Amino acid sequence: MAFFTTQRKETGSYNDKRTKPCRSRRKGKIYNEKTKNGKLTVWGAYERVILAIQNARKWADSTCRAYDSVFYHYIAEIYNDIEYASLTEETAEQIWSSKIDIFEGSDAQDQRARSIFVSFVEQACRAGLSLMRFRDTVPFVIPEDLSQLTTEQLLEVRRAADRCQWRPKSLTIEAEIKIYNELIKRASTQGECIALLVMLLLGCRTSEAAGLSFGNIRKMADGLYSIERREVEEQSSRTVKTGSKTASGYRLLPLLPQFYELLEERKRMVQEYMEKNGYTDLDINDMPLACQGTNLLTRCTAKEMNRIFKDICIDAGVEEGFFFEAEAMMAIDKEAGAEYENVVVAYILRHQAATELVATDASRAAISVLMGHKIEDPNVKAFDYANADGQRELLHILMQRPLYRYICGATDMEQITLEKGQSAVCGGSARLVAQEDEEFDLYIDTLEPYDTIKIQLEGGARLLKKNVRKTIALPYQRPSGLSMVNAVTQVVTEAEENVKAGKLADKPVMIAQCDDPLSELMTIDDLQINWKPQITNGDGEPIADSSEEVKKAVCEDALIAVLPGGVLKEVPKKEFVYNGTKRARRDEKIFADKTIDRVKTIWPFSQSADKIVISREGTAWYLLVEVSAEEFLQADEWEECRRALAADGLMISREKDADSLICGAQNGDMVRLPAEKLHAWQGQQQIVRIGEAPLAAACFCKATDDILLISEKGQALRTHVSDLYKRVDIGGGLTKGMRMKTGTDDRLCCCLVYQPKRSLTAVSQQRKLLVLRADSEEKAQLRAQGHVGEGVCLVYVEGSDRLAEVLYTDQAVLLLSDSGYAQCRDISVLREKGRRAKGIEGMKRGRIIRAVCAKVK
């Protein structure tokens, strides 16, 4: 666990923007805002961003004053007179640890101060006061000597390294566009972004990008400029040396006009700074293109570039697990570490450029010139392109990249009208218009073996036959007419729309395992096609594919549906399509009868445990395990029980070793009943007398358990079962329990045994699905608050939405809606989040009424 963990989203509800900060009564010590050499101290930096912190976190006035007091009394004292810009994540932790006694043993005060310090560091980074920023992205730090790890940690490192190998080899276009825009935005305050832009646009290595100076810019012709790659930066030294990794390392690379204008503007800014500050002895041509932060004359290092880019990656939607997996891969494969110059994160930009260049119509030799690789063709040399015509040819190749087309706005999609007897080859996405009553054969291949294909049939077009070959061993030669033009126009247009809408594609990222992505092109010996096309109609609904092997999942319990009018019916569907992706797919009907289009609720009927059915008014029926679902639905003796269940009753399964039954009303009132008394009668029995609110939740448990009481608005209260008074007999009333927030219509919805080592899955009525991170570390667990209290926010529930179910499930969850549809989701592929997080789309239709555990067959 990281010393300083990632800050959560805004924790307050104060929505007005303040014009001046709220401060506490600061009495006593006066802290200096600057060091003796005029640099900002931690206190000085805090005073500059305090307003931004309070507005960003949306704290109430009282909270702002309380947190300001914590900063004044503890944090300012810990870092007294220390230059803020000199702090790193490591030194900040070391200084804090050396002065931990200031908290006088109070862990709560220590944790609160750390949280406030992280909020401060986040805003200070955004204000350009420092590069330091805390990101809790790894489970543990990987040391250089792997023998220092435990057996479990070493196993996790090897697994992470293996996962890295199987990731797709490129960023999504959405992420690439977002990264580009963020680099442009930050370039004025974080000079490292210029080097990162060079890597992204031109595919340079990290040391090459850091080693560039203004003197490397060359005019090739009117309106055509290039950059000469001559020197590299010595590792983390801020000095450059003449050198290259390969004989082709010395090269001219054409500049996009927009990027050239950015560099020229930056050059003018540096010249003005030099003249203003009297640096007359320095030559502008020797000044770095990419500087350290705002220190225009100081060259940035690869480590600083890496830190900035990691930050941008996370903001752009690149999943955080990538960083740990990449570090793991380098720890296992030392040669890979040398290839990536020990900056594995930033190096992905070079591989992004290489991956896109491979998909253009360029020759292998031309791509090698652009990338600085060894040129295998003896008839081609790098200097063949060191002239205006050669640079125009390389720029033409670069213009086929999706990012270049986005920057230049070249996103119009080509349309091809097919005629009888005509053949056409399209290198990616294209719109094909066919004549009426004509048939065409469509052959599709992918850019990468893990890419997917989507075909949309519009108008009267029909799919006559679809044939998928998973493995092929035929000579593959790209037709001369095949290019990326059609592919990038469509994908860039869609990506640009997604970015504007705040959406991100679901495809993760990786780094290729070798320095030369060209060597990873498939050959005749190992050509594998692993994709299967997704074919949809004009409305985007998938067309069934009988050739696909569809995984099925089952629910071990029978499912009893309560239909409108109080009719109970067993769900006939026993198997459900298993959705192993991160996105919601098409839902499936649970009843073949088309007249059943509305379901009130659904209850799992355990085939292996006793059960109890409790009415809203507290009347109960005890069902032994021998009672089958069929008998329960048909036997006359259970008629009253069925009627109670249909009238919003509860059905709860009992674990064999349970000794207590906890019942909770909608207003949070609760009672603990002796389980051994519940099966001692036949027929119905009043087990609890309710008050002003009906029963809403119940669960069986043991005296040694802790339970979670969860409300519809996502509040959770943890309490020890042993703290609840256990009634000697049944039939008593409820006592005060979980308090609902005043002024809200919140209600209790769920009661379950707390299991901190397992991930908790939460589902809302408006189809939001969320998997919470396991609370295996004691300090991360929900704090027990007794049986009376409001609890804490477990899940962020927006607007009118409410929680439908919270449960523990290890593999899959079956979501069931009131419209009679279901979708089985694999929770292991979903990113686990911390408390107070929002969910993702769980299914497509209706309002979710129940979620139950499922397993893959």
Structure keywords:
857 residues, alpha+beta
Outline the structure in words.
The protein is α+β, with helices and mostly antiparallel strands. The chain contains 19 helices and 37 strands. It has a five-stranded mixed barrel. The longest helix has 20 residues, at 107-126.
Can you give me a brief rundown of this structure?
The protein is an alpha+beta fold. The chain is 27% helix and 19% strand.
Please outline the major beta sheet: 5 strands, mixed, barrel
Oligomer: single chain
Count of helical regions: 19
The strand count comes to 37
The whole-angstrom Rg is 32 Å
Secondary structure elements and their pairing?
Blueprint: H1 42-57, H2 61-78, H3 89-98, H4 107-126, H5 151-165, H6 173-186, H7 192-202, H8 206-210, E1 217-221, E2 224-229, E3 231-233, E4 240-242, E5 251-254, H9 257-276, E6 291-292, E7 295-299, H10 302-315, H11 321-332, H12 334-339, H13 348-358, H14 364-371, H15 388-398, H16 402-408, E8 415-417, E9 431-433, E10 454-456, H17 485-500, E11 534-536, E12 552-554, E13 558-562, E14 568-570, E15 575-579, E16 588-589, E17 601-605, E18 611-614, E19 619-623, H18 629-634, H19 639-646, E20 650-653, E21 660-665, E22 670-674, E23 684-686, E24 688-689, E25 695-701, E26 706-711, E27 715-720, E28 732-733, E29 748-753, E30 760-764, E31 768-772, E32 792-793, E33 803-808, E34 812-817, E35 821-826, E36 840-841, E37 848-856
Parallel strand pairs: 8-9, 10-11, 15-35, 24-28
Antiparallel strand pairs: 1-2, 2-5, 3-4, 6-7, 12-15, 12-37, 13-14, 13-17, 16-35, 18-19, 18-20, 19-23, 21-22, 21-25, 26-27, 26-29, 27-32, 30-31, 30-33, 31-36, 34-35, 34-37
Helix pairs in contact: 1-4, 2-4, 5-11, 6-7, 6-17, 7-10, 7-13, 16-17
